[in-house]
């Protein structure tokens, strides 16, 4: 096993950080390292900080533990891609018209700008997390009888435990902002981003990433499989070694379980989470990142080329979704004021109710004239 602190992260000073220019490029070139593939002998180039290098000729993955210490990774996997460039657009288009918040006309109105293939390295930490917690729950009860009856608050001791299995993804590189949506596949992270524009009644539309089994359908890493979808040129080398990925997954899972435990009682006083790691695998995920423009703005969608599904996406909220939300809110308020008017025999409340109701009708009429 390689040493944890064997590599400096990329971009910690040094010439590769100097902006542009010819001088910068020359310096950058001298920073490129080269080793030979332990399987086929092909030269493997790597950038400073890269520690997990996959041969684009034979697919063997080499881990650089130290400058003169090279290990070949026993097992590394690929979720074989099943989707080429054109099909990725169909998958993204089908997603764009799905659901209450997006207009079903959207796919006909967007302009596809940029479609990039990426085969990204993730350490997938197979583990079970167990959390025990205890605390207090605020409750109310009725005491006394007849006229002396009253409601009082009291605290009840509560406790519980929960456990969940994960195939937790840790991006195997330092810069999790280098491509869009890299961390959006982590369970519980926001994965769907509605764009409401100036609309302020923002109800729903966003989604969190589910706890999916990232190893389902995994196969031994194979360049041939990537070639079928034209993705073999887009393999990205890893930089983070296994131990660090494991630590990273542990702390993220503990953090998440603590948040979950804290939502189960009014006051949580004690939490203990243990993460039992069964194994850590390097898995390459083939992804298509699509950028489209709509209404003068750019939005992104990440398509899983193996599962044929959208992992994460940004989309404008449709005009009729906004109108429906607007009308529900305004008509509920109108009904409330009319009820007040009826109950208190107050003319002003009828007027307010009427104005709110008219507002809903007007907004609907305005929406009908608006371009989607
Ligand atoms: Zn090779």
Quick overview of this protein structure:
The protein is an alpha+beta fold. The protein has helices at residues 21-31, 85-96, 106-109, 223-228, 242-262, 319-344, 347-369; strands spanning 33-36, 43-46, 52-54, 61-66, 69-72, 76-78, 111-143, 150-171, 190-195, 207-208, 219-220, 267-294, 297-304, 309-316. Helix 6 (319-344) runs antiparallel to helix 7.
Helix/strand layout:
Blueprint: H1 21-31, E1 33-36, E2 43-46, E3 52-54, E4 61-66, E5 69-72, E6 76-78, H2 85-96, H3 106-109, E7 111-143, E8 150-171, E9 190-195, E10 207-208, E11 219-220, H4 223-228, H5 242-262, E12 267-294, E13 297-304, E14 309-316, H6 319-344, H7 347-369
Parallel strand pairs: 6-12, 9-14
Antiparallel strand pairs: 1-2, 3-4, 4-5, 6-11, 7-8, 7-12, 9-10, 12-13, 13-14
Bound molecules: zinc ion.
């Amino acid at each position: 096993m390689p040493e944890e602190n064997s590599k400096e992260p990329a971009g910690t000073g040094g010439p590769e950080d100097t902006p542009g220019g010819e001088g910068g490029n020359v310096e950058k070139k001298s920073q490129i390292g080269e080793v030979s593939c332990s399987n086929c002998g092909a030269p493997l180039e790597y950038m400073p900080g890269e520690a997990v290098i996959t041969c684009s000729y034979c697919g063997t993955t080499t881990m650089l533990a130290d400058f003169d210490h090279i290990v070949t990774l026993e097992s590394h996997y690929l979720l074989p891609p099943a989707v080429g460039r054109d099909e990725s657009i169909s998958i993204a288009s089908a997603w764009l018209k799905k659901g209450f918040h997006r207009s079903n006309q959207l796919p006909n109105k967007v302009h596809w700008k940029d479609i990039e293939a990426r085969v990204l390295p993730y350490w997938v930490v197979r583990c079970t997390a167990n959390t025990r917690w205890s605390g207090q729950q605020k409750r109310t009860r009725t005491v006394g009888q007849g006229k002396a009856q009253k409601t009082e608050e009291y605290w009840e001791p509560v406790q519980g435990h929960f456990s969940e299995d994960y195939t937790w993804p840790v991006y195997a590189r330092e810069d999790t902002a280098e491509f869009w949506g890299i961390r959006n596949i982590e369970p519980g992270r926001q994965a769907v981003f509605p764009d409401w524009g100036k609309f302020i009644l923002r109800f729903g539309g966003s989604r969190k990433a589910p706890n999916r089994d990232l190893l389902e359908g995994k196969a031994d890493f194979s360049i041939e499989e990537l070639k079928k979808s034209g993705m073999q040129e887009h393999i990205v080398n890893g930089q983070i070694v296994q131990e660090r990925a494991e630590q990273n997954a542990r702390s993220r899972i503990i953090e998440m379980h603590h948040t979950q435990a804290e939502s189960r009682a009014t006051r949580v006083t004690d939490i203990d989470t243990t993460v039992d790691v069964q194994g850590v695998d390097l898995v390459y995920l083939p992804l298509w990142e699509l950028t489209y423009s709509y209404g003068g703005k750019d939005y992104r969608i990440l398509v899983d080329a193996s599962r044929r599904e959208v992992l994460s996406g940004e989309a404008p909220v449709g005009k009729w979704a906004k109108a429906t939300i607007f009308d529900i809110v305004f008509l509920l308020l109108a009904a409330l004021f009319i009820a007040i008017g009826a109950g208190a025999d107050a003319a002003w409340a009828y007027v307010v109710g009427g104005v709110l109701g008219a507002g809903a009708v007007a907004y609907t009429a305005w929406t009908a004239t608006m371009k989607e």
